[in-house]
Queue: 4 jobs
Job 1
Amino acid sequence: MENIMTTLKELKKLIFSLKIRRKKSERNNTTTTIHLHGSNGFYIGLKLIFWRKRRRVFSFISAISGCLLLLLFSSVYFPPPTANNLFLPRHSSVRHVVNVREALEYNFEASGGNLGRDLWSWSQSTFYYGCSNASKTFQTANRKKLPDRYLLIATSGGLNQQRTGIIDAVVAAYILNATLVIPRLDQQSYWKDTSCFAEIFDVNWFISYLSRDVEIIKELPPKGGKAWIPRTIRVPRKCDPTCYETRVLPVLNRTQAVELTKFDYRLSNRLDTELQKLRCRVNYHALRFTDPILKMGKLLVERMKMKAKYFIALHLRFEPDMLAFSGCYYGGGDKERAELGAIRKRWKTLHASNPEKVRRNGKCPLTPEEVGLMLRALGFGSDVHIYVASGRMAALDYIVCDETDVFVANNNGNMARMLAGRRRYFGHKPTIRPNARKLYKLFLDRNNMTWEEFSSRVRTYQIGFMGEPNEMKPGKGEFHENPDSCLCQARGIETIEEKNRKDAVEMSDEYQSIEDPDWIDVDYLYKIEEVMSD
């Protein structure tokens, strides 16, 4: 007992000493903080945040020594925290699950895992770069375009879903040798956004950048001095070049102007390399937001950077419409089933939901709680700042999620796919998307294992889902998320971790096999019956 009392006195002195050093170090932009958390006694952790001043080596060594002493004392005299204390209990209502801040903060305080490498960048990313220039054999617009042939496009869905339509519209115009009229945005979707193309994207830049590929005009010119109505057509989903030449070209030749309606995912995912590179030129270079939107987005990024050197942007899709359409169950009992069931009745063609099967197949969005657990297991700590992207300000969210150090999504919707591809193209910036099929089983069994075992399994399951180079085989997944035709590797560079790469590719194949192209953003759901009737 005497030894214990002596040790306690020494610890008090140590803590007091550390507090004094902390106050002194704050003047030199160095902060040392001790956090004490209760869990079956004491769960003691030490958080160290050092800013730029490197000459305070003695303070750093002292803090580490104190940490070791504290951890040694707690491990000897107090039992370790149990697995049950490291996880949130199952919620009784879906509304509780939506408490993002509470869920993330709780789980970030738990003891985390460690990837054993830099969490904020990939060592091999500098060896890869985006390459989308046309080859010498690619015919330019002035040599290919036929006169008096106009293609109009009516996009569908939210901003990112419409983005895919705009990209494919340019390619479709090239296939048809037609002049493209600036696409008409969907103003009747779930979001009820009345913006036109020129209010979101820099229309003049769009036209000039693609002038060598496709002739683009702002509006359909009058015919015989009068306005004319183009013929409307809806092509099948995933229509390939031959399909366009068979279904659209004869009508275009006859009427001179054709409008393709509900133009989302109406072009084949697999095209020849030159057409895929054209997709990349449109997506990553020609489609640029207007200056006011860009300035506001940059300001948001700067504000996040002011808080910390690095930050995470989390695209969290957890609206009732999304949950209802997915057919998933989140533990809210009869009240949740009744509320989501009522919303689900809006889509009469949907089959009866099988929540267990849907979750087992990895098609349920992760809850905020599960996202927090995943990130903590990967090694992100409680000092991480998170920008939550979820709402109608899709353009601003897109900019912040593109510029963030690490992008995380709890779903595999349009925005997640588009940003995954963009971040690959511009340097393979870390992009974390959950391996939902594997994590589902792990979350079910999470209270029956230690935190160390849980975090180790999360890190294993996430191989192939982190945005690293060569994570996916060429041709796998949607082209917008894996633009392999537009990714080049520096010559003479051999990548490392070949075993991990092989594992990643195998797991990525499994991930692609469970994808459902129709399970996309909530704005698309309101027109699902129309899609299913195609």
Note: The chain has two domains: 125-129+293-500+520-532, 141-288.
Job 2
Amino acid sequence: MKIKHRKPQNFPHLPVTKQRRMMNQPGKWVALMAAIWIQAFTGTNFDFPSYSSNLKAALGMSQVELNYLAVASDVGKAFGWCSGIALLYFPSWVVMLMAASMGFLGYGLQWLLLQGIVSLPYSMVYLLCLLAGCSICWFNTICYVSCIQKFPANRALALSLIVSFNGVSAALYTLMTNAVDPNDASLYLLLNALVPLIISVVAFFPILHQPPAQPSSADATRNDSLTFICLYITAVITGLYLITFNSTPSSKYGAQILLAGAFALLLVPLCLPGIWSTHKWLFRIASTGLSSVLHFRFNLVNHELQQELINVESERSGTKVITPCDYKEKESISRKMMGKENLTVLEEEHSAKMLVRRLDFWLYFVAYFCGGTIGLVYSNNLGQISQSLGYSSLTSSLVTLYSSCSFFGRLISAGPDFMREKVHFARTGWLALALVPNPIAFILLAASGSEIALQIGTGLIGLSSGFMFSASVSITSELFGPNSSGVNHNILITNIPLGSFLYGVLAAVSYDSTAGSSNQTAATLGDVVVCIGRKCYLQTFIWWACISIVGLASCFLLFRRTKPAYDRHYESNPSKTQPF
């Protein structure tokens, strides 16, 4: 009888909340698609080898001076932490338009220089390269922070997906250039200036109208994982399309058809989440409405009886309802754990001051410095490497090969998240395995100067570097806290300008000294001396192989130190090991 007098008004409102939550689901997917498009067209640093020789001839530079320009683009990434600070004080769309403006100015003036419209000193070109590199890092930060906020349960899957599309930028820009004028390398600079600006304007509204993040149930997380499977399949098809058709020679008209197909594939991910979310939403409304009409009274009584049973059981056992620990208790526990030498838990927030005091961070820094960064420097020198080996005509295809393999390396980095139900392995361990191809590739390049060796080596380095670039975002979030990743990851990638300078200077000095030591290895292209032969980069490849071995060793030590934290995380969070 008591049950009849209790007010049941609040109980039926639960389905309405679920309905509203389902209505907000498409919003986060649209934001994810906006991040994919931004990433796909803002990896403008990967096409530097395609126009570097033209830039070198226009300014009459030596190889060392050209390397400084490549370094300048990477030095811009050293200021990437400013984007994390800017996001704390400005809306994301403001930061995005600031990034687009920097890229438009940096690349646009360089294009005017190659067209002979303006005359700029070397120092000004250096600053323009720095500004362009800064814009890339700002775009990346916006996308990373957006995915971390919108997909807290599937953070790694979202990050790996969007970062992978950054690897196809060079292939897309090559298609666009071939579709307009295959013989004009300066078009890369014009497209680098205009396309990111246009994409930013298109993505303006999805970024501006992002719904607030809402906690997801276990069922919603599994549904999101299934959607990610569809998106990853689409991404693989896109990568195979670009690497297959971009490597085959085609006419201007053929390139236009291939470009239209690439854009169509990039539009497919925009439809999949919408169809999936709409289907689930309609199904939820229908099932909720039917159950509320037919079984409302049964559910109400069952709910009340469960509550009474819980209260009786609590009184008998004398136990209390478990509540989350107080914030101060969490903070004290965190401080105790941070005070220890080894990292004991994952996803604990680290300030910048705490970050630089950790040995794990510096092992991570060295692994990135000697692993991912050295692959990026290799791609910057790919134009001169192919020229010295007598494969100048293959430069565009090699850039596309590196870009496509980098794309697949970034996709492969999501493999641990799909296999975590069966294989509980630390992400730092996967990273160590991904760095193994680097020394193999450089040893192969040093041993042989054949076209096949160059292609295999470029592909291996692209795979390894792509995995590193993608997995590092998730690893930074796991080791040093998701909320601080916007700043902490930009602190990590300050190794890129440092490595770009040191490795680039090493390669450039060896290149120029080899070209000047013997007339048989030198050729003249205008006022510029060009090195020809295997000796031009032989010493560089040997040095890079040794450095990559150091990075592999550092990553292995990081894995050994962080493995207990990952094991403890899997044991205490068994639900996170079952995404499907």
Note: The first helix runs from residue 2 to 5.
Job 3
Amino acid sequence: MALRSTGRKISFDILSTFLSDDDYDYDSSIIPTCLRSNSDPSPQIIPIDDAKSPTGIRKKKKKKKKHRRITEHSTISEFSVTDEELDRSFPVGEFNAYCYSVAQSSSVVVCEEPEAMPPPMPHSSCSVGSVTGLPFGELRQRNVMVNGVSEESVGSPQIAERESESVKELESRSNSRVEMDLNMDGIAGRSLEKEVSLDWKRLMAEDPNQTFPVDKSPVKCFMEEMYAGNSLRSTVALGNEKERERVYDTIFRLPWRCELLINVGFFVCLDSFLSLLTVMPTRFIMICWRFLKTRQFKKLSAVELSDIGCCVALSSGAILLQQTDISLIYHMIRGQGTIKLYVVYNVLEVFDKLFQSFGGDVMQTLFNTAEGLANSSTENTQYWVRRFIVDEVVAVASSIVHSFILLAQAITLSTCIVAHNNALFALLVSNNFAEIKSNVFKRYSKDNVHNLVYYDSVERFHISAFLLFVLAQNLLEADGPWFGSFLCNALVVYVSEMTIDIIKHSFIAKFNNIKPIAFSEFLEDLCKQTLNIQTDNVKNNLTFVPLAPACVVIRVLRPVFAAHLPYNPLPWRLFWIFLLSAMTFVMLASLKVMISIGLKKHARWYINRCQNRKLHSD
């Protein structure tokens, strides 16, 4: 093994004394000496010739110094001997001194052999300067003058400490290299343990608190886990009163308030629907009667223009839907096999929501134009009339398209209810859980949740119109006892819709940190809208256009009334048409008055309650 020196400069005086000793008979050719300069990376090898005298060696060194000046810090690079060479060159008992130098300082270390040196081990390599390789004796150091600077004296404690550290470092390097050589040569030996493993074992041994119970038995570890605390303490944090309130808000308080708000919104939509079928025709008849009575064209008010626009849109949609063959659409939807019924229903529901939003904007535009036409001057009347006609055409087209979408949706629901292959349950499951998936895991603000509740109120009213369509179809075409199954299916549809709405809004409020009191505020705004009280945010009002549902209801109820008319002469038939229409009008008007009175009374009571609560809280 090669051994790198510690960099001390060679003392040629000691070398000359060592080489001129006649008591030692050795072969100096096996002891190569390598001098390596720190400034020159390439080593300079100067062999020591045994045929020359020490005086010749000194002359040779002086000649080389003339050509090239050796730097002050030079090293002995590698110097190694084997046991066989030591046996030939240094017999036991004859070797008294062996010298090596370290080139990083100016001192020389001389190692003397003890009086009784043990015989060398066979087949082992040793390095000069290695304590374990060669059994040197004690180390001595002398002062050497280099460039006028005197080094430390012999036996200095600093030098002794430095030398001991160097010897330990050299010993560790030689041992590691010996192990590497043994592994490369294929000699079986004990492999070095990893440093990480040694550190881990030391950590285990020095751990006073036994943080890592590696030496504990499985039974003891299991018993400690049993008495350590909560079994879910590592994955479930300890709650507080706020978390408890949140749990009971999600289970009890919020579902009740959400369902109350949706139901009140449903009745507001029903009141608007009945107003379209009762109040609007009455106003239109009064306008026509006044015109026929006075025979003079009087400028109409904004309310009258708005009612005329709604009447034209309703009449156009009802007339076009009367030309639609429901049985043809029914068999087309039921007979197709490419797209499932629940997919068709979901697609129609998406378009229903789109045209519901668009129809609200169209009607707002129409009412704004009617207001401008009623208050316009004589010079601008023509401009406002053209604008009103354009807005009316857009409103009629939008209501007609929306009416056809709702009719197709009602026919699809009727097909699912009539079918005997559990198509209704597939429709409800796919539609409702798709609604939960698309809404629950999104980020909502308070205003968005407010509008979402109103959409659910409108959707529930549309479902009621669809079930009325199914009832009318059963009255016309069903045979046998059908009313019980109809009630059961209608109940399943309503209960599933109510359950899905509660789950959806409860978890939307949970994920978006919306308190149940927010739904009470929404209900207060809806009550103010019922009483026509202006609110701070008009955009959050419930927007519902009943034109398309009214067209669908008129389309499905007309055949029912026609089937019960007597087949008598025309005057008698006209009498029954007038009588049934009057009875229907009275019934709808009575229902409208009852719902309107109930909504207004509830709105006043709830607003007073909220105001009293705010006063008590202040």
Note: The beta strands are 34-37, 44-45, 74-76, 80-82, 97-100, 108-112, 125-127, 139-142, 145-146, 149-150.
Job 4
Amino acid sequence: MVNVATRLQILLIGALLFPRLLNHRLFAMDTAEQNCVRSIKLWPPSQNTRQVLVDRIIKNLTTPSILSRRYGVLSKEEAEEEAKQIESSAFATANQLFEKEQDGDGKSSVELYAKTSSTLMVEAIKRGPKSKEDQEPLFESITENDQTLFDISKGDRSFLDAEKTKQLLKPLQEPGNKYTKICFSNTSFGVDAARVAVPILSLVKHQLKEVNLSDFIAGRPEEEALEVMSMFSSALDGSDLRYLCLSENALGEKGVRAFSELLSSQNNLEELYLMNNGISEEAAKAVCELIPSTKKLKTLHFHNNMTGDEGAIAISELLKKSPILEDFRCSSTRVGSEGGVALSDAISKCTLLKKLDLRDNMFGVEAGLALSKAISVFSNLTEIHLSYLNLEDEGASVLVNALNNSGSPLEVVEMAGNDITVKSASSLAAFLISKRESLTKINLSENELKDEGSMVISKALEDEFPRLTEVDLSSNQIRRAGARVLAQAVVGKPGFKLLNINGNFLSDEGVEDVKEIFKNSPDLLGSLDENDPEGEEYNDEDGDGDDDDDELESRLKGLDIKQEE
């Protein structure tokens, strides 16, 4: 029976990661296995099942693919490290769900386990391999403006035991040391190592201003990891920090509460990072409950969590108590329309915002409309990341109109993957012109602007943009005419660095046209190897491809872009 259960777990996880195999594999089960599906507890997965998932993730991270061609293939060593972290994080996330639904068979937890693993795996691919600069010696001591950093995060991950920890942390015990910042990231403390670290941290905690404990319990069983977190929390209780990073630790609510002593003693935090922590609705509420004051908070990052609408509502309460917040990131947190509206309302209270990142959520049009009201009050915003929010034309138009009318000196604008069409092109163009003095990067990739929309954008870009360095209109169903006009609009700009129009419908002739335009500066043109010369869907709808080029370009002549009053 155990073997059948294990096989069923592997089957379900594999099918969820590779859906096309689902029907075939289920059909291949014998009658006894099929009869067991309803009676077997599918959660928690066996150790063998967990290892199978780790092996599959390693294979995906080290196998060339469309994504890896863009971001790079990880080495076997990096892939093994990433795979273990991904599986551990996914397991912790799914186990939280199972603890709420213990009467079930665990299928929903297995589904979440697979889905979370898949999401984290794609993110690992997009991060790409580590740069050479990351491969440094294990210990580093750096002085910056009379503050000293004690950093043990460099090089390969180290699984610390008591003796190694004692040797590694010796500098912190030196009389009269002036360390005010510590970084224990990219390590793995077990209980024995923590017992050595705790008294040392207790000695220096009152001089510390910055603490980075991200990714410091990797590969440890949940019970041990929670105990280690609790020990570090107790050791640092009473410190007066300005910066705290607890990212990459698969915290969940249990982990957040394991850090309760540390969090509840912080009244002067200026920066808080809780990224990739499995922050659920309950965990988000716990964070808000434990931190006594965010009046001095300037940076708050919640990237890549399972926060959802209810969690977003809890975070909104934290935002309302953070009047001087300058940098807010709540990307990839599964927030839908209700949570998006709540966040938007709270963000309107943070009038000093300079950076706003809400990418990869499920806001939809309603939350987009609410956000447009919030950002209209900003005058200091320099970066706004609104990609993959399901804004559509209606949401995108009201947002760019609000930004157009704001006094913010925007430098970076990202609105990729929002189903934006030519209907919004005039509003986008007017907005770009209104911010031409400050804009450095424009990302409108993975939309549906097509030739006509891209030409409207190109017309705007013909104006002077003294600081513009990057334009991304990849994957927008653009053909030869649109690509040619866009290339001509940016090629001669001083300081320009990259035009990305890959993944469009350029014919071979169109590719040659664009390359010819950039013949004196080929490094400024991104790769064009993923274009689809056929562009069947677009051609069927709009005509015969290059035959329409002259007509499309003629539409551009005399085009006026109306700016909002």
Note: The radius of gyration is 26 Å.
